[in-house]
Design brief:
Layout lengths: L1 H9 L13 E3 L5 E4 L1 E4 L7 H31 L6 H30 L3 E3 H34 L4 H4 L2 H19 L1 H7 L8 E2 L6 H5 L7 H34 L4 H9 L2 H23 L5 H25 L1 H14 L2
């Protein structure tokens, strides 16, 4: 329950209004509608020089995330023996991570390298929508992968009949649809809000809680809808993932040969790492928002970790822990070296 409460605050609280003036777009009667653009801060308290040098590890992370996730997608597509539910869900996870990193990291790199703070209002809303929607899709894919491990370990004889190719495709479509449907209203709600003349986005990318706090009017609708989304998406997913692993642990502990139990649970290690990499920064970000106060270095670092870490770490973990993918990658490098 504490986790759900922290998640609620992630979409609604924890930001104070900054004080930088930018042009606004106005209606014919002079009423302020929305700014022409927002200004991204990057990392508060750091000067242009430090931002410039931070751009290089950021670009390296983006290259690593792109190469790692593309490698997984291409290997699973080429190797027909990997066309199984676990690997098909991994393809979905890598695709989501690839798109998520591509809509945020290039803009962050331009901010850090060249100091380009401006981001056009509609582009900012689009980035916000895609960031939240893709995060919801990643959460759904992680839940699907937990279900796959549950069926494989607890009901191995029914695994092939339960998770057919058609079922996997429907689960993927459901994850895609849910992510878009739940977050699709947010840009339109935000676009209807009047904004003050303070339009500095206090992170390196656009988030709902940042933009919402810049409005001059009551944002109760945003808060309530944000609570509904969080409880219906990440909250429900995390509960079912936890419940799945309780059942998996119980089934593993009931296996008589110790080696068989360890082998069965070893198939879950990569997925557990992916779950921790996704949810631990999310919980941390929610906790620091819960503490309130002005946006600090801690807030921004937690937000950047939540967004940037999964696309980089997930392919490394799966390539290291999954024998089939690891052997294919090593074969590619050995052939390339000849």
């Amino acid at each position: 329950m504490m986790f759900l409460l922290f998640l609620f605050l992630d979409l609604g609280f924890g930001m104070q209004k900054p004080q930088l003036l930018v042009p606004v777009t106005a209606t014919s009667n002079g009423t302020l509608v929305h700014p022409a653009y927002f200004l991204l801060v990057g990392i508060p308290g750091l000067g242009p020089t430090i931002h410039f040098w931070l751009a290089f590890p950021l670009c390296f992370m983006y290259a690593l995330a792109t190469l790692g996730n593309l490698t997984i997608v291409l290997i699973i597509r080429v190797e027909r023996r990997l066309h199984e539910p676990m690997y098909l869900f991994l393809t979905m996870l890598s695709t989501v991570d690839l798109v998520l990193s591509s809509i945020t990291m290039p803009k962050m790199a331009s901010l850090f390298l060249m100091g380009i703070q401006e981001i056009e209002f509609n582009i900012c809303l689009a980035q916000m929508f895609l960031t939240h929607a893709l995060s919801a899709m990643e959460s759904a894919v992680l839940l699907a992968m937990a279900f796959d491990r549950f069926v494989a370990i607890c009901h191995p004889l029914h695994h092939a009949s339960v998770l057919t190719g058609c079922t996997v495709a429907k689960i993927g479509l459901a994850a895609l649809t849910r992510g878009f449907v739940f977050f699709f209203p947010l840009p339109f709600i935000l676009k209807q809000l009047p904004y003050c003349r303070t339009h500095t986005v206090t992170h390196s990318f656009c988030l709902h809680q940042d933009i919402m706090k810049l409005s001059c009017t009551d944002t109760r609708v945003n808060v309530v809808y944000g609570l509904f989304i969080i409880l219906s998406v990440m909250g429900v997913d995390s509960l079912f993932i936890g419940f799945s692993y309780i059942l998996i642990l119980r089934a593993v502990l009931e296996l008589s040969p110790r080696g068989a139990a360890l082998k069965a649970f070893n198939t879950c290690i990569s997925h557990l790492c992916a779950v921790l990499v996704f949810y631990v920064p999310l919980i941390g970000l929610s906790v620091v928002h819960r503490l309130g106060g002005p946006t600090s270095l801690l807030h921004v670092v937690m937000a950047d970790t939540y967004l940037l870490l999964p696309p980089v770490v997930n392919p490394l973990v799966y390539e290291a822990k999954t024998k089939e993918i690891r052997s294919r990658v090593l074969r590619m490098f050995s052939q390339g070296g000849k």
